[in-house]
Specification:
The chain has helices at about 20-25, 80-85; strands at about 1-5, 5-10, 10-15, 20, 25-35, 35-45, 55-70, 85-90, 110-120, 125-135. It is mainly beta. It has one domain (about 1-135). The strands form two sheets. Strands 1, 5, 6, 7, 8, 9 and 10 form a seven-stranded mixed β-sheet that branches. Strands 2-3-4 form a three-stranded antiparallel β-sheet. The longest helix has 5 residues, at about 80-85. The mean pLDDT is about 95.
């Protein structure tokens, strides 16, 4: 897997030297599927702790998907917990039976998947050739 970003401390990413705090500053809005690509969309959360110059939207585009795994979150969880990323990690694709572990690894290895854990218990795990992170001001 190739990416244009790195994971920082399993709750944020770095793109071109910019730290992007996914846990505190962005809300997950949804998944878009288009042929063999998937896009995960996040928007800037509302709160006085979010910097004015924070990106408005960030999108993870997964290209040439080879694997998808989804776990639904707790249906009784608060809305903000279903939108709030808890942790993000690269994880070996040969361990797909494990969907609850974290590896402190900033860059993916060739056969890794990307896993996102949300505060409501939702899990998204995707294996692909490339992930491109794009941002909008």
């Amino acid at each position: 897997m190739e990416t244009n970003f790195e994971i920082e401390e399993n709750y944020a990413v770095q793109l071109n030297g910019t730290h992007i705090d996914l846990h505190n500053n962005f809300d997950f809005i949804g998944i878009t599927k288009n042929r063999n690509n998937i896009t995960l969309d996040f928007k800037k959360t509302k709160g006085d702790w979010v910097k004015n110059d924070e990106f408005e939207n960030i999108n993870f585009e997964f290209k040439n998907i080879s694997y998808e795994y989804y776990e639904e979150g707790d249906s009784k969880a608060q809305k903000e917990d279903s939108e709030r990323l808890g942790e993000i990690t690269f994880f070996p694709s040969n361990s797909r039976e494990m969907n609850d572990g974290i590896i402190p690894q900033s860059k993916p290895k060739k056969d890794d998947d990307l896993i996102m854990f949300f505060e409501d218990g939702k899990v998204i795990r995707i294996g692909c050739d490339e992930i491109e992170l794009t941002v909008e001001k």
